Structure formats: structure tokens, C-alpha cells
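Morning, I've got a small favour to ask if you have a moment. I owe you a coffee for this, so here goes:

…
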Amino acid sequence: MTKVNHASSRVTPLLELRLFYYDFLRRTFLMEPTKDFLVFVKNSMIAPDFPLASESGMILEGVQQIKDYLSKNDIQSETVCNDLHWEYTRLFIGPYQLPSPPWESTYLNEERLLFQKETLAVRKAYLKYSFLPVEFGHEADDHLGLELDFMFRLSELCLEDNDQNGVDLRQLLIDQKSFLEEHLLQWVPKFSQDMIQHAETDFYQGMGKILQGFLTLDLEALLELLTINS
């Protein structure tokens, strides 16, 4: 099999774009928003054309909502930070019934319980790459933030020198495609719709739209990369 040279003008920008998005999204869903995170989001939105916004109506809508929110609210304000912190807590942590629970198993089994077979399947995918979530033992493996973080880690490997790390690029792409199809795309579209419906700020409504729009496009990107690296 012929491996793709990462200097390729077709491959490297696409790999870098995927890395940016998975970093952006994992930081959105892994934990409550901090001031540093909000600065990161604002800086990401400064560019006139946010990556892939022209390729997806969902991403474009989401970006515009977040930009509108940032233009009207001072992210250095304690009030704004507290409001977004509460929004994250209400949507994804509790203590009340969650309108958009961020775990795969709550969407894919009738009991909507944690640590089900879906969780174990996700863990198996992680262990193939010796990926141990930072909250292992305290947070279910199928938390959205952890699934996005896993895809981020594999995207990092794709950009490394595969001859030195011993990981085959094509196999990395195949495993990411499988994880996307068998896990994220099985439940995130419904999660995103719940999030968009129940979020009270344009900030999190927009994030829900960007999440759904990107994952759909990422499947197309992985198919393209696999075709190039065939």
C-alpha cells in the first residue's frame, strides 16, 4: 500500500481542519466554560470566513448565532461567564432532569441509563489506541466530550510521522470513520436537536448546530481521505 505524503496539498490542510474542529468541539463539551475558553471561541470567530461555514447551512447558522452573542455580551464579565456556566450545568450536568444528556448510552437504550453496552463498546475503541479518558472511573466513557477528545487524539496521530510512530494512516482513517458511523452519528444528531431546542442562549444553540453540521461533513472528509490514500 502506498502511503500519502503529508506534504500533499490535498491531504494536510484537510487533516489540519479536522484537528481544529475536534479541538474546538471537545473543549466546548468536556467541561464548564472558563474565561480562557470563551477567549478561545471569540478568537476562533474573528476570521471573516469560519472554516466550513460555506459548506454547511447548520455550521453557518451556528457561527452567526455565536458571533451575535459575542457581539452583545462581554465575555470578561462575571455575569456572562456565570450565565454560560449555569447554561452548561443545566443542559449537561444537573441537578434537574437533563434536557440534553451528553452520553451515548442515554440515547441508544430504552432505559436511558449510563454505563450500558454502548459505554463498553466505546471503551473498546479507546483501548485499541491506549486512550484512557482523564476522568476514567468518574465519568462514563461515552460522554460526548470524551468521544470528541478521542477523535481529536486520532486526528493528531494522522498528522504525525507515521513511519516513526508505527501507526498506519489508512488504518487511523478507517477507525475514525467506524467510530463516527457506529457511535457519534448514531446519537449526536438527536442530542444536537435537543440541545438546540432547550438551550436558552444563542451561544449553546449555535454550538449545537456547529456540532451537528461538522460531524456530517467529517464523514465526507474521511471518505475523501480514504480515497486519496487507497
Remarks:
- Residues 87 and 201 are 8 Å apart (CA to CA).
- The domain at 6-228 is CATH 1.10.3480.10 (TorD-like).
- The longest helix spans residues 169-198.
